[in-house]
Amino acid sequence: MKTIALEEHFVIPELVGYGASTGATQPPAAWQHMVNLLSDFLEHRIPTMDQGGLDMQVLSLNSPGIQAETDTQRAIHNAKLVNDFLKSLIEQHPTRFAGWAALPLQDPGAAADELERAVRDFGFCGANINGHCLGKYLDHPDFDVVWERAAALDVPIYLHPAPAPDVPHVFRGHEELLGPIWGWGVDTGTQALRLIFSKVFDRHPTAKLILGHMGELLPFSLWRLDSRWERDTHNGIELDLGRPSEYVRRNIYITTSGVASAQPLLAALLAMGSDHILLGTDYPFEDVRMMIDFLKNAPISMIDRSKIAHQNAEKILRIPA
Ligand code: MN
Asked: What mean pLDDT, rounded, does the chain reach?
């Protein structure tokens, strides 16, 4: 069974510093080990893929990436730098690597242009965006130009978590809740709902959003979202499709990244259908072999397994079969 994984991280030496906030959630030695793995492509990464049964990684700059840059011109420069690097890596290993563009959202027009350059000229699959950009989430009207361009190019945006712009009251005094253990999922799932309720998907009905980590808590919540949406005043907002779940099922795709557990996979399958679930490992933060073995042995049909393992990626990301 061919396997294409969509949440596979890397870094280049010039941009290691952007990861400081993510690294802060881990012991320093463990983070340094991760940086070494993120920076490597041939010595450890490809052998690990071979041993684990992973054919292709769609690579993204490690979180928070360019979004952490406070200088707009430097963000534009560094996005080009890392996308140019990724382009040449993919050219050398076209069957093993594909790419998500990093975007300088500090200048939304430049971000849209960089997305187009990466997709049209480099054959990238779309863009990877880590959380917010300096406190602005993707539903901000300034980013409509990016959604418009992504929809016109017919490429998805992969929304990956990043440290939140501030610490919400409920987390204060319990910083162990921040980061990938819990806070990232809440933040990213909430941002996906902000996109729905800001009517981004009403303005751009063909836009595609990909969420990692088995859907950042959303697949479990569809019935309750719809039920409360119907009862509540919902802030005066009216959705063209009526119910929030319609957008989750139409515009949102999820990956298995970082979740090797059958219960949430089965829940996601029932909630969203096998056409909207794709493979991700969250390399190097999870074990590739464990993630691939999980999918190979999961209690699902061979048809669904093939869609998740590679067919959906080939179709949505236009990766040659
Ligand atoms: Mn990740």
From this structure: 96
Q: Which residues are catalytic?
A: 282
**Is residue 276 included in any domain, yes or no?**
yes
Distance (angstroms) between ligand 1 centre and the Cα of 293 equals 19
**What is the Å distance from ligand 1's center to 64 Cα?**
10
Q: Contact, 290 vs 283, CB < 8 A?
A: no
Output the six-digit token pair for 246: 């319609």
* Helix and strand numbers, DSSP H then E, in the chain: 14, 8
Residue with tokens 């440290």: 163
Instruction: Give residue 242 CA to ligand 1 midpoint distance, Å.
Output: 32
Domain that holds residue 169: 4-316
Q: Tell me, what's the pLDDT at 23?
A: 82
Segment 74-123, tens digit of pLDDT: 999 999 999 999 999 999 999 999 999 999 999 999 999 999 999 999 99
Q: What is the pTM of this model?
A: 0.97
Q: What is the distance in A from the centroid of ligand 1 to the CA of 283?
A: 7
Number of domains in the chain: 1
